[in-house]
Design goal:
Structural class of chain A: mainly alpha
Strand content of chain A: under 5%
Structural class of chain B: mainly alpha
Number of helices of chain A: 18
CATH topology of the largest domain in chain A: Growth Hormone, Chain: A
Number of domains of chain A: 2
CATH architecture of the largest domain in chain A: Up-down Bundle
Distance between the termini of chain A: 21 Å
Largest sheet of chain B: none
Oligomer: heterodimer
Chain lengths: 454, 40
């Protein structure tokens, strides 16, 4: 019965429209993007009491999200190679099963006041679903859209940014709906697990891989193109040994670390920089606005990279980022005192943060070819996990230092943001050093043909 | 050789985009409404 999940069965028939593939990918990314809305469950979880009256603390509850994100990076790195042979449909099915069942197990944990079950369910099993789901449609999209790889992957990864916008109101409303039940969080998670599983199955049924040798009608690859765009194929293990892989790793890490610097502190930052003018409610609006910039940036920048090139796109991110991170503290009430300018500057910065995520698969495809791009992308996502630790460490470390030494918190932000500007310089240099992949890493054409046909 | 080519219906393509656009639009609307509080 599960044979329909096999790669061979999911090969598209002649006349199949490639425009069915982005919605399939979006259904996965819109679902798993829910992880960014996990914070809505923090307070309800803190209020839960066990049979002995014990409650969890903020640190313990915070680990649920951290485990999920860490497992995301690990599973993307570990299972990427399997995905390339198993095909996107099987990988998406496993992702949907893990993500959905992770919610169910976590619900059992919430109902029985077992944090270990929540860690295992939402964190580990759900985290595997996140990692597999994130990378599963990437190489398929690139194969369907060889003429617009940035647009295609931008569309899918935009979904991950948008997932929190659905997950947040959905979770809040479900908890309100189940408030009179004995276990509102458990009931919410069971409902979400089932809903997301069904939604992701739409992607599983819709996804198709192009048949061997397929290309868009009338499309002819350009005879002259950038030296960075390869016509060869590089295996995932060989790719991991290239300097290009580690330069791209650094590029993604710098871009994400700097973005997290704003996202992590968005609400308190705007309130501190505009003390007396911006309170908690409008600050929450600012956070929402940033998520719109994050989502929009994923689509706009990745699509634009098809025209201006991947390297130029990252140059724009790093040059603009450097200038804007330097300028951002001066928009506060001690200098220009302009909320609109602050919001616009932060919005543009967050759009480049999202754009960095969405453009990286196409950059990988340019350098290593489309053969193992999902697997290589999976390994590169360890840069995200690293940035997820480094970014908050920088921000919280500096803020703690200022608060601990009774210095005005407002004065910490220029220091933090200027460190982010320095990270942009590192990213700029790494991008500058990217060269075409040396021939010794290429797959021999005969070998690659056999593997592709598998 | 006879090829069995069956073009995907544009209605099917539209329906697929509809399935993912509806929840996404709901999420964007909700976020936008929250974001407007910044300017009130």
């Amino acid at each position: 019965m599960l044979r329909f999940l096999d790669r061979e069965v999911s090969v598209a028939h002649p006349g199949f429209s490639r425009w069915l593939v982005p919605p399939a990918a979006l259904s996965i990314h819109l679902a798993i993007g829910q992880v960014y809305a996990f914070s809505i469950f923090k307070n309800p979880l803190l209020a839960l009491k066990g049979a002995d009256g014990a409650a969890w603390n903020l640190k313990e509850v915070g680990y649920i999200f951290s485990i999920a994100i860490a497992v995301l990076g690990l599973s993307a790195a570990l299972f990427g190679r399997w995905l390339e042979t198993a095909g996107p449909r099987k990988a998406m099915f496993v992702a949907a099963t893990c993500f959905g069942s992770g919610f169910l197990l976590a619900a059992a944990g919430a109902a029985n006041h077992s944090l270990a079950l929540i860690y295992l369910g939402y964190g580990v099993i759900g985290g595997i679903g996140l990692g597999l789901g994130y990378i599963s449609p990437v190489s398929t999209l690139i194969k369907w859209f060889p003429d617009r790889p940035g647009l295609a992957t931008g569309l899918a990864i935009m979904g991950f940014g948008g997932g929190a916008m659905i997950g947040s109101p959905l979770g809040t409303r479900l908890m309100t709906f189940y408030r009179s039940s004995s276990h509102p969080i458990a009931a919410t998670w069971v409902t979400m697990g089932l809903l997301y599983f069904v939604f992701m199955m739409f992607g599983v049924f819709t996804i198709r891989v192009p048949r061997e040798g397929w290309k868009p009608e009338g499309w002819v690859p350009r005879a002259r193109q950038s030296a960075l765009i390869s016509t060869h194929k590089v295996d995932v293990n060989a790719a991991s040994r290239t300097p290009q892989f580690w330069l791209l790793w650094l590029i993604l890490c710098m871009n994400v670390t700097a973005g997290i610097g704003i996202l992590e502190q968005a609400s308190p930052m705007i309130q501190d920089l505009f003390r007396g003018r911006v309170s908690a409610v409008p600050a929450a609006g600012f956070v929402g606005l940033l998520s719109l910039f994050n989502m929009g940036g994923r689509f706009v920048w990745a699509s634009m990279s098809d025209f201006i090139g991947r390297r130029t796109t990252y140059f724009v991110f790093f040059v603009a980022g450097m200038l804007l991170y330097l300028a951002l503290p001066f928009t506060g009430n001690t200098h220009l005192n302009s909320v609109a300018l602050f919001v616009l500057t932060a919005g543009v910065l967050i759009s480049t943060y999202g754009g960095g995520f969405a453009t990286i698969p196409a950059y990988l495809k340019d350098l290593f070819g489309g053969y193992h791009v999902s697997a290589i992308h999976g390994r590169l996502l360890t840069a995200w996990s690293t940035a997820g630790i480094v970014g908050p460490l920088i921000v919280n470390g500096i803020l703690d230092h200022y608060v601990g030494n009774h210095l005005p918190k407002q004065q910490a932000y220029p220091v933090i943001l200027h460190i982010m500007a320095a990270l942009m310089v590192v990213g700029f240099i790494a991008n500058l050093l990217v060269r075409p992949v040396a021939q010794k890493y290429w797959l021999e054409s005969a070998t690659s043909h056999v593997r592709v046909a598998r | 050789m006879v090829t069995n080519e069956k073009n995907t219906s544009p209605i099917l393509v539209l329906a697929a985009w509809f399935v993912v656009s509806i929840p996404a639009a709901w999420g964007v609307y909700y976020t936008l409404m929250n974001a407007l509080k910044l300017f009130q």
